[in-house]
Design goal:
The protein is an alpha+beta fold. Helix content is 17%, strand content 39%. The chain is globular, with a radius of gyration of 11 Å.
């Protein structure tokens, strides 16, 4: 499972729609307190081919682990 954070709420909603079109499961939810996000929303997904939907609106991608969250990718912005 992964959590994706975004710079804007609109970006999170757009990405969720794109993911669903590709058949991926996606759930918008508040960003956990341990993580920070510009917009306060994150997307929870088990979709593995995230590189198929690249987006400039993604702030970071975390893998959910038994210990919490592991940063996989962070925007350079």
């Amino acid at each position: 499972m992964r959590l994706i954070t975004f710079f804007t709420q609109a970006g999170a909603i757009r990405y969720e729609k794109q993911l669903r079109v590709l058949g991926g499961e996606a759930k918008l939810k508040p960003v956990p307190r341990q993580l920070s996000s510009s917009c306060g929303l994150c997307l929870e997904t088990s979709f593995e081919a995230l590189d198929r939907i690249a987006s400039d609106e993604i702030d970071s991608i975390y893998r959910v682990t038994s210990d919490g969250f592991e940063l996989e990718w962070k925007s350079e912005e």
